[in-house]
Design brief:
This protein is of the alpha/beta class and 273 residues long. It has eleven helices and eight strands. It has an eight-stranded mixed β-sheet, with helices on both faces. Helix 7 packs across helix 8. It catalyses: L-proline + NAD(+) = (S)-1-pyrroline-5-carboxylate + NADH + 2 H(+); L-proline + NADP(+) = (S)-1-pyrroline-5-carboxylate + NADPH + 2 H(+).
């Protein structure tokens, strides 16, 4: 299948490189474009056999599956521009959470889906969130699932939990990275450990924790119980976390949902759906 990418920002690039590295797609069957074409050309420098074009309409005409990897408010005008070149058999995929599949379906004459990737997909791991439009055929659904399964565990979700799911899957790595960075900084400030040592230990701890969870030997609560010896050091550390965290993650979801609703409102004014 020939695949086109419109937009080579962070997530677009992650998808392109991950598909190639995982052998999900042959680079010679991939065409990419970007508003700043130099960004697309830099990807080609790392993989010479993929194609770069400045012609978005040509990209659509010559490819079967099209990933739209642009900012939410840029999608509607882009779709209006591309609609005359889209066929019923095209598979159009948005990777932007505020854009709903039904909004795209009311704008274009082809099959639609939304796939929300995660930076963890660059390691050919983690989850990708998938929502299929009503226009999406069983064949198209299978093709999307198969493609995404090369770089992630594709998880189909309903539109109602899009923001919460995206917070965990897509934003989660940034949230957890921030907490680990604060963990490292505090270790350096409060003890004689060097930052380099703390970074190495924290990284290996995270990798080991991920592998341990993958075995499903322990749930998260069970893991805490195993490490926390009664009257021990870990318990005292958890007390500090309990007093500090409180409603922190509630506020994280409140903030992200408030921004999400703002984005949805702006998008709805464009789509009128």
């Amino acid at each position: 299948m020939k695949i086109g990418f419109i937009g080579t920002g962070n997530m677009g690039t992650i998808l392109i490189e991950s598909f190639i590295e995982s052998n999900a797609a042959d680079p010679s069957q991939i065409t990419i474009t970007n508003r700043t074409i130099d960004k697309a050309l830099k990807i080609k420098e790392r993989c010479s056999s993929l194609h770069v074009t400045e012609d978005q309409e040509r990209l659509v005409r010559e490819n079967e599956m099209i990933f739209i990897c642009v900012k939410p408010l840029d999608i509607y005008p882009l779709l209006k521009k591309l609609t005359p070149h889209l066929r019923e058999d095209h598979i159009l995929i948005s990777i932007t959470s505020p854009i709903q599949t039904e909004q795209i379906e009311h704008t274009v004459p082809c099959q639609t889906a939304r796939v929300i990737p995660s930076i963890t997909n660059r390691a050919l791991a983690g989850v990708s969130l998938v929502t299929f439009g009503e226009s999406c055929s069983d064949t198209a659904k299978t093709q999307i699932r198969t493609l995404m399964s090369h770089i992630s565990k594709p998880l189909e979700i309903e539109s109602g939990i899009t923001r919460a799911a995206s917070d965990i899957v897509s934003c989660g790595p940034a949230f957890m990275s921030y907490l680990i960075q604060r963990f490292i900084d505090a270790a350096v400030e409060e003890t004689s450990i060097s930052k380099q040592e703390a970074v190495i230990m924290s990284k290996e701890m995270l990798v080991g924790l991920g592998k341990l969870l993958e075995t499903e030997l322990y749930t998260l609560p069970a893991l805490q119980e195993k490490v926390c010896v009664k009257g021990g050091v870990t318990g005292e550390g958890l007390k500090a976390l309990e007093s500090g965290v409180q409603d922190m993650f509630n506020r994280v979801f409140q903030n992200t949902h408030a921004k999400y609703e703002e984005d949805i409102s702006l998008v709805e004014k464009q789509f009128h759906v």
